[in-house]
Amino acid sequence: MRSTKIVTSFIKNDDKVLLLKRSNTVKTMKGLWAGVSGIIENNEDPLRRAKIEIFEELGITEDKIKFLKSASEMKVVSPQYDNHEWEIFPFLFEVENPIIKLNWENSEYRWVTFDEIKNYDTVPSIDKVLLSLL
Fold first, then answer.
1. SS3 for 10?
2. Distances (CA, A) of 99 to 22, 60, 61, 64, 123
3. Which of 22, 29, 43, 115 shows the greatest Cβ crowding within 10 Å of its Cβ?
4. Low-confidence ranges of the chain (pLDDT < 50)
């Protein structure tokens, strides 16, 4: 089975986490709600990649985020590709009163409680990934 390593980060503010709606211009999971995600290049450090993705997708600089926790990597079978899985490296960060500046990868964002996530059409296993961090 082919595997792609990705980071998925959740940004926490008070008792809510940030969900992003993937735009129609991204390659995968178009229109689904997700955390901040990105592909890990070669032997890149996952935490470093997570911070880069937060800046690229949200416009939040590293000095404005506080690293809270990481969880063990998880494997999720891709519903879009045959014989493919995502190897996810989960991270949780905290930010106070952020100003969100979305790039082209996401079209909307919402601050939600964990219980509200079930009301959104999300990427596969987002609840399991987030739960591993709470």
1. strand
2. 19, 7, 11, 10, 24
3. 22
4. none
CATH number of 2-131: 3.90.79.10
The answer to whether residues 112 and 11 touch, using CB atoms and an 8 Å cutoff, is no
Q: Across the chain, how many H-helices and E-strands are there? A: 2, 8
**Burial of 7 per CB tally in 10 Å (0-12, 13-18, 19+):** buried
* pLDDT single digits (tens) 91-119: 999 998 889 999 999 999 999 998 999 99
pLDDT for residue 90: 96
Q: Specify the pTM.
A: 0.90
> Residue 35: phi, psi to the nearest 5?
-85, -170
Q: Which residue has the tokens 């996530």?
A: 117
DSSP helix/strand/coil, 84: strand
6, 99 Cβ separation under 8 angstroms: no
